[in-house]
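Question (not urgent): is this output format expected?
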Amino acid sequence: MRAMWSGAVSFGLVSVPVKAYSATTNHDIRFHQVHGADGGRIKYKRTCSVDGEEVEYADIVKGYETDDGELITLSEEDLDSLPTATGHEIDVIEFVPADQIDPLLFEKSYYLEPDAKAAKPYALLREALVQTDRMAVVKVALRQRESMALLRVRDKAIVLQTMLWPDEVREPEFDILDADVELRPQELTMAASLVESLGSDFDPAQFHDEYRDAVVDLIERKRTTGDTRPAPVAAKRDEGPDSMTDLLSALQASVEAARAGSGAGTSSSTTSDDSAAKKKAPARKPAAKKKTEEDEAPAPRKRTRKPA
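Got this back:
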C-alpha cells in the first residue's frame, strides 16, 4: 500500500506520528465505450451549450447558478483566496460511546500506521479505545479541506473514519411513516421468531459479488473461444507542421535570402528592367549568370562619371 497522508494523532500531551493508507479499494470491472463497427474508442468533447463550439480546457471556469437563475463564476484567483486547511495533525476533540455514532455518517476509511518509534503510544491509544468502548471524534485536513472524522479500532489497527457533516445527511420525509399502523401481538411474535431463526454471527467473508464473478466468467469465455479482435490503434491526425519544422523552414528561407543578397552584390543599383529579366529567367546556368554580371558592371561606372 502507498501512504496518502502523514502526520500525527494528538490527544492531551501525547503525539503519535502516523501514516494514513486507504483501507478500501474498488474491484468493479470497468468497460470502455467503443464503436461497435470498428472498435474505436468513443471520445467526448467539451462543448458550449450556447454556441455549440468546442471549448479549450484553459477557457473553462467554475460557475454557480443561484435559485433565481443568476450565474456566478469563480476564477482561479477567487479559489486561491479561500481558506484551506493544510495541517498535519489529527486533533482529538472528545471520546464518545461507540453506540452513539450513526453509521450513516461514515464516509471513507483509512488505516493508520504508527511510526517505528511510536508503537507504544499507538498501542496505548488503541487499547484505551477498546476497553472503554469509545471512539475519538477528531478533525483532520485531507486534500486541503478540513473533515470531521473518527478514530476507531479494527483488529490491531486504528482506523481513521472520515464522516459527512450533519447537514449532509437527509431526513426521511415520508408521510406514510406517520400513519397509524395496528400490529397485533401474534404478528410481532411471528416476526421475532423469524428473525431469531435467521440469526447468525456476521462473517463478511461468506459474501461475494456474484455479478462481478459472472462478468469475469463471460469475458474469459469469450477470450478462450476466440471471440476477440485486436484493439484498433487510432490514426494519428495531421495537425500541420510542428514548431521544429517551422523553425527549419524559417532558417532555410533565411539562408536562401542571404545567398541571394550576397550573389546580387550591387542589387541596389540594378535597374528595374534588369530585376524583371532576372525574375523571368531564374534558372540560368552559372556561366551565363557570370556573363550577365560582367555585362552589367560598366553601367554603374558610367553613371558615376556623368555627374563629374
